[in-house]
Protein: Tetratricopeptide repeat protein 29
Organism: Theropithecus gelada
Amino acid sequence: MTTLPPLPMTRPKLTALARQKLPCSSRKIPRSQLIKEKDDIDHYLEVNFKGLSKEEVAAYRNSYKKNICVDMLRDGYHKSFTELFALMEQWDALREAARVRSLFWLQKPLEEQPDKLDYFYHYLTRAEDAERKKSFEDVYNNLYALACYFNNPEDKWVRNHFYERCFKIAQLIKIDGGKKEAEAHMHMGLLYEEDGQLLEAAEHYEAFHQLTQGRIWKDETGRSLNLLACESLLRTYRLLSDKMLQNKEYKQAIKILIKASEIAKEGSDKKMEGEASYYLGLAHLAAEEYETALTVLDTYCKISTELDDDLSLGRAYEAIAKVLQSQGNTTEAITYLKKFVKIARNNFQSLDFVRASTMLGDIYNEKGHYNKASQRFQQAFDTTVELMSMPLMDETKVHYGIAKAHQMMLTVNNYIESADLTSLNYLLSWKESRGDIEPDPVTEEFRGSTVETVSQNSEHLEELSRFPGDQKNET
């Protein structure tokens, strides 16, 4: 959005005079004092500034806001005055409502912001002049300048007012092939999107996209309007699909994301196309359409590789691993998660590293590989300690504790099964200390190797029986 500099304007006589006595006082003054001050001012002006008209005297006496309004009416800008007066009333109403809600409401009254009043006067009157001449493009440009000027959090409602005015005027412009109408649809889409009205936003963005198809129009920053239309539509469709997925409306979500994917291809932006494939793949995963999800996510994987985008590739590996895990293909899921861990580590993506390590630990824990699970959870926990993230630390600490308990369970079971005095002494010692249980120095080497061998063989046989073609991927 354009940020406008202070206006180098020639002010009407009253406002020019009124500017000399700014700022206006906002304090309440008793009527008797006002009458006395008025008489004093009149006497002072009569003695020292003979020849001043009543209007010039009034310019010193009235507020800047009142002088702006008087100038508008005196110069014949009745529509501008009506619009400004309505905006000022709404401004005061919103300010009062906000003051009631919050003791810390700091926005100044409009009469204490002469620069904003200057912008109102300058652009509203120019827009009215242009409207009288049927020069609707100039009307649009002046109203759009006001929308740009008020594009800040506290004045966004003013910006939205002028967006709506621009939209109505844009329908009357016929000489630019529809460019202004396209821009107006973009602004209205943004207005509704910020307000959470996604269906209305999508309608405007669709019109924006349709009007820019096959055009080489660019915005003031040099960006293609058609590409902006594609990005805006994709963003809105994704937000709509998120709500649909939350409501378990999987078919509708997939339908709208397929539409988004087709639009992304039209935009000739590979990254945008990849993003569309990613969200479509996740929607198929939520709908338990695993094979379709893998196909779509593989497209995202290829695009990320082509763009040499490691972070996107990591996201692709993570999503594919989730699909494979949902299918029960944990061996291949582990392979993809290890790739994800490597990318996260190499690119210093700590949160991704924690997430990938935790997912790996969960799989190993379910498969009974407690040593590997403990290692992965410990890596995740150590990383959260470095990040100083208490919620993540607490979560990974629980995972790590469970895996360590499972890991110790094998040794404890072995001692119990031995049922000899030495084993009993080790168990009693552990009960007293609650630390890591000490292995039997005589039998642990044999026992540990036997348990590890049995565990590995059972794991290997299980994978061979379920996925004969995948055992080469396990490391």
In short: The first helix runs from residue 13 to 19. The radius of gyration is 35 Å. The domain at 270-348 is CATH 1.25.40.10 (Serine Threonine Protein Phosphatase 5, Tetratricopeptide repeat).
